């Protein structure tokens, strides 16, 4: 069944490496979350954990290629997390606008940006003119862009091509164009956790 749908047999070794990488990233993100008590960002490490489990489920899927429940759970756990990553980004966007810039710079109230984006499923068309003084903030923004582009460039094309499309039938693209860029994006937050820059902006400048 798996081969009939995907046109390939999942590679167990690559799935194990991907699952392990996301698991380590999840642990680091949870540490960052609890150290800074930023409960609003809980969706990021939780989604990363789901992604990790999803990759390990691909191993089970390779061992049991006729199991529909395993296939469905694996699909769910690898398709849903990127949306949660984007939700985290838009929550962060709202906080950056409200704390670091000016609420008037956003067409939508910062507190409602994430809600509207998640409900509508439409990417943001919002632009804010700002200049970050710290290199870390620029790298943080780059991580956000990587996640967004990865989700749009790969997933949109994948579904547009259908079940027999080139991207869908070649496993390497699932890892190179989707899983790896997303991993790089969320790992950016391990090094540059947003709270550092949000709190810095509240301190009076000398």
What does the model show?
The chain has 206 residues and is mostly helical. It has one domain (2-202). It is built from 9 helices and no strands. The longest helix has 27 residues, at 135-161. The model is unreliable at 120-137 (pLDDT under 50). It is found in: Membrane. Keywords: Membrane, Transmembrane, Transmembrane helix. The chain crosses the membrane at residues 13-35, 42-63, 135-157, 172-193. It is a multi-pass membrane protein.
Largest sheet descriptor: none
Shape descriptor reads: elongated
Strand content: under 5%
Mean pLDDT: 75
Q: Count the strands?
A: 0
Q: How far is it from the N-terminal to the C-terminal residue, by CA?
A: 65 Å
Poorly predicted spans: 120-137
Domain count:
1
Q: How many separate helices?
A: 9
- The helix/strand series, from N terminus to C terminus, equals HHHHHHHHH
Give me some keywords for this one:
9 helices, mainly alpha, elongated, single chain, transmembrane helix, 206 residues
How would the blueprint of this fold be written?
Blueprint: H1 2-6, H2 12-36, H3 43-63, H4 68-79, H5 81-100, H6 110-120, H7 135-161, H8 171-191, H9 195-202
Helix pairs in contact: 2-3, 2-8, 3-4, 3-5, 5-6, 5-7, 7-8
Concise synopsis of the structure shown:
The protein is mostly helical and 206 residues long.
């Amino acid at each position: 069944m798996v081969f009939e749908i995907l046109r390939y047999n999942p590679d167990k070794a690559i799935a194990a490496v991907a699952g392990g990488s996301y698991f380590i990233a999840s642990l680091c993100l949870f540490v960052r979350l609890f150290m800074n008590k930023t409960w609003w960002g809980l969706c990021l490490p939780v989604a990363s954990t789901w992604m990790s489990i999803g990759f390990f489920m691909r191993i089970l899927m390779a061992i049991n290629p006729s199991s529909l429940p395993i296939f469905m759970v694996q699909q769910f756990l690898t398709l849903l997390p990127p949306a949660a990553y984007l939700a985290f980004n838009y929550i962060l966007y709202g906080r950056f606008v409200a704390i670091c810039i000016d609420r008037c710079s956003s067409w939508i109230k910062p507190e409602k940006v994430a809600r509207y984006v998640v409900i509508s499923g439409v990417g943001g068309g919002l632009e804010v003119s700002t200049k970050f003084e710290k290199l870390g903030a620029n790298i943080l923004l780059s991580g956000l862009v990587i996640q967004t582009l990865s989700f749009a460039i790969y997933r949109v094309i994948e579904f547009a091509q259908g079940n027999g499309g080139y991207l869908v039938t070649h496993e390497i693209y699932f890892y190179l164009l989707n899983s790896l860029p997303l991993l790089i994006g969320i790992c950016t937050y391990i090094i540059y956790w947003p709270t550092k820059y949000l709190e810095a902006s509240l301190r009076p400048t000398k």
